[in-house]
């Protein structure tokens, strides 16, 4: 398979976007050691690990109650709706809530820092 060579756009052509250069493996390794990258990684982990632990714990409680506390899970709340159904629906609500919270967090905390790192890595040809 052959590919056409990459040609830089004309400097005075406003319709042609600049071409991002491809960083080398050594540049990626050096970037991983920078304080900016370490800060980005630390911020991501500070959010993701606790949220994952929280949700897995919440799900485990739900499953264990379903297995070992069938009387409690079958307790009617109103009409044919019982505690188990409400907790099952709460699993969906929790999932969407965590997802929304992550989107807000990523837009505010991660994306600007990642864009800066990407710009430093790619530059423009």
How does this structure look, described?
The protein is built from four helices and two strands; from the N terminus they run H-H-H-E-E-H. With 125 residues, it is mainly alpha-helical. It has a domain at 48-122. 69% of the residues lie in helices and 4% in strands. Helix 2 (35-68) runs antiparallel to helix 4 (83-122). It has a two-stranded antiparallel sheet. The mean pLDDT is 88.
Considering the chains and any ligands shown, give keywords for the structure:
single chain; 125 residues; mainly alpha; two-stranded antiparallel ribbon; elongated; DUF485; Membrane protein; transmembrane; membrane
Short description:
The chain has about 120 residues and is mostly helical.
How are the SSEs placed, and which strands pair?
Blueprint: H1 25-32, H2 35-68, H3 70-73, E1 76-78, E2 81-82, H4 83-122
Antiparallel strand pairs: 1-2
Structural class computed from helices and strand pairing: mainly alpha
Please give the oligomerization state of what you see.
Answer: single chain
Instruction: Provide mean pLDDT, rounded.
Output: 88
Strand sequence of the main sheet, in spatial order? 1-2
Gyration radius from CA atoms, angstroms:
24 Å
Distance between the termini: 24 Å
- Low-confidence residue ranges: none
Q: In percent, how helical is the residue content? A: 55-70%
How many strands? Answer: 2
Please give the count of helices. Answer: 4
**Judging from the principal axes of the Cα atoms, what is the shape?**
elongated
- Strand count, sense and closure of the main sheet? 2 strands, antiparallel
């Amino acid at each position: 398979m052959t590919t056409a060579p990459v040609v830089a756009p004309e400097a005075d052509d406003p319709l042609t976007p600049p071409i991002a250069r491809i960083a080398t493996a050594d540049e990626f390794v050096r970037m991983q050691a920078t304080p900016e990258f370490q800060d980005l990684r630390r911020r991501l982990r500070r959010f993701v690990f606790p949220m994952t632990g929280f949700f897995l714990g919440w799900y485990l409680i739900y499953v264990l109650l379903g297995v070992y506390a069938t009387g409690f899970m079958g307790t009617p709340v109103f009409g044919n709706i019982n505690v188990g159904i409400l907790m099952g629906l709460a699993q969906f609500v929790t999932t969407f809530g965590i997802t929304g919270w992550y989107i807000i967090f990523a837009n505010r905390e991660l994306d600007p820092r990642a864009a800066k790192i990407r710009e430093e890595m790619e530059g423009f040809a």
